[in-house]
């Protein structure tokens, strides 16, 4: 029994001396769980873990450094802890929830889907703005689904309630759209909404440019949050570049000629011909200008040679 337990814990990586001490204290008939607890209490570690600790010592990393992975950071931290290459995200919670609920129900599950989509991409600064009166019990004229999600997002410091109050039985609500645009503008982030905020564009000319360039629209397809791959149109940046602080420009590529080897345009053809790797892609006029420059330079050199004797 002693040898079998000794072999068992040796395979786990513990030292023989520590195992023998524990077996002497607990007895040879001690259960394996009790022996393992005693080994842990003594501070004994498997040799594999000790070797890993020696080979990879802990390194101090500055706050806000991009050396850490985006997924290892908390969503509730400030922008200084966010990744250096992804923009902050500001979500219009009311717009997203009503879009997911087909403009009939305030669906909090739609907000959760949007937050999860950006969280999986690695965004660490995510804020959702919702009016404070959405915390109240739902009414028939304004139904709310999955209201508990709002409480969970608030605990994670993702959800922010815009203030509201009641004066003589009437609700006074602050304009939440102004909160959304202002925070996104100050953080140099992205607004997630299908609203165009035309009134705010006319109110502030700086906000007008920002809303036109940083508004990310979306759709819900079978409970799936889907922003477009080209947020600013066909000729604009891709979605990855749109959400990045440092966009990566694509390498210029020649469009291949549709006629291929049957092309009869020669140097006039503006398309790429892979069968002509050494042939310059110049027009006839440019090629003639280049030849004239070469002949003129050669003529000047000959005149110099003739004058030198």
Automatic annotation (TrEMBL):
<dbReference type="InterPro" id="IPR040546">
    <property type="entry name" value="Rege-1_UBA-like"/>
</dbReference>
<dbReference type="GO" id="GO:0008270">
    <property type="term" value="F:zinc ion binding"/>
</dbReference>
<feature type="zinc finger region" description="C3H1-type">
    <location>
        <begin position="251"/>
        <end position="276"/>
    </location>
</feature>
<feature type="domain" description="C3H1-type">
    <location>
        <begin position="251"/>
        <end position="276"/>
    </location>
</feature>
<dbReference type="GO" id="GO:0016787">
    <property type="term" value="F:hydrolase activity"/>
</dbReference>
<dbReference type="Pfam" id="PF11977">
    <property type="entry name" value="RNase_Zc3h12a"/>
</dbReference>
<keyword id="KW-0479">Metal-binding</keyword>
<comment type="similarity">
    <text>Belongs to the ZC3H12 family.</text>
</comment>
<dbReference type="GO" id="GO:0036464">
    <property type="term" value="C:cytoplasmic ribonucleoprotein granule"/>
</dbReference>
<dbReference type="InterPro" id="IPR021869">
    <property type="entry name" value="RNase_Zc3h12_NYN"/>
</dbReference>
<keyword id="KW-0460">Magnesium</keyword>
<dbReference type="GO" id="GO:0004521">
    <property type="term" value="F:RNA endonuclease activity"/>
</dbReference>
<keyword id="KW-0378">Hydrolase</keyword>
<keyword id="KW-0255">Endonuclease</keyword>
<dbReference type="Pfam" id="PF18039">
    <property type="entry name" value="UBA_6"/>
</dbReference>
<keyword id="KW-0540">Nuclease</keyword>
<keyword id="KW-0863">Zinc-finger</keyword>
<protein>
    <submittedName>
        <fullName>ZC12D ribonuclease</fullName>
    </submittedName>
</protein>
<dbReference type="GO" id="GO:0005634">
    <property type="term" value="C:nucleus"/>
</dbReference>
<dbReference type="InterPro" id="IPR051101">
    <property type="entry name" value="ZC3H12/N4BP1_RNase_Reg"/>
</dbReference>
<dbReference type="GO" id="GO:0003729">
    <property type="term" value="F:mRNA binding"/>
</dbReference>
<keyword id="KW-0862">Zinc</keyword>
<dbReference type="InterPro" id="IPR000571">
    <property type="entry name" value="Znf_CCCH"/>
</dbReference>
């Amino acid at each position: 029994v002693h040898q079998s337990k000794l072999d068992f814990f040796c395979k786990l990586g513990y030292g023989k001396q520590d195992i023998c001490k524990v077996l002497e204290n607990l007895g040879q008939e001690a259960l394996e769980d009790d022996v393992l607890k005693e080994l842990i209490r003594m501070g004994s570690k498997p040799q594999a873990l000790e070797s890993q600790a020696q080979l990879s010592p802990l390194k101090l990393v500055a706050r806000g450094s991009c050396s850490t992975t985006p997924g290892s950071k908390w969503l509730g931290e400030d922008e200084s802890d966010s990744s250096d290459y992804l923009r902050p995200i500001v979500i219009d919670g009311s717009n997203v929830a009503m879009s997911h609920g087909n403009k009939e129900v305030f669906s909090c599950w739609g907000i959760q889907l949007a937050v999860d989509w950006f969280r999986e991409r690695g965004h660490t600064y995510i804020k959702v703005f919702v009016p404070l009166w959405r915390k109240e019990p739902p009414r028939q004229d304004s139904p709310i689904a999955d209201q508990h999600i709002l409480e969970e997002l608030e605990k994670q410091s993702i959800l922010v309630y815009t203030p509201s109050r009641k004066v003589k039985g009437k609700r006074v609500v602050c304009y939440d759209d102004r909160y959304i645009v202002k925070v996104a503008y100050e953080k140099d982030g992205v607004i997630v909404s299908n609203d165009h905020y035309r009134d705010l564009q006319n109110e502030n000319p700086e906000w007008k440019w920002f809303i036109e360039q940083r508004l990310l629209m979306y759709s819900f397809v079978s409970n799936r949050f889907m922003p477009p791959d080209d947020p600013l149109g066909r000729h604009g940046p891709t979605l990855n570049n749109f959400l990045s602080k440092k966009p990566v420009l694509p390498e210029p590529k020649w469009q291949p000629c549709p006629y291929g080897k049957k092309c009869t345009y020669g140097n006039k053809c503006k398309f790429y011909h892979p069968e002509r790797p050494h042939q310059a892609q110049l027009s006839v006029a440019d090629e003639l200008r280049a030849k004239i420059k070469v002949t003129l330079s050669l003529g000047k050199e000959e005149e110099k040679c003739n004058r030198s004797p």
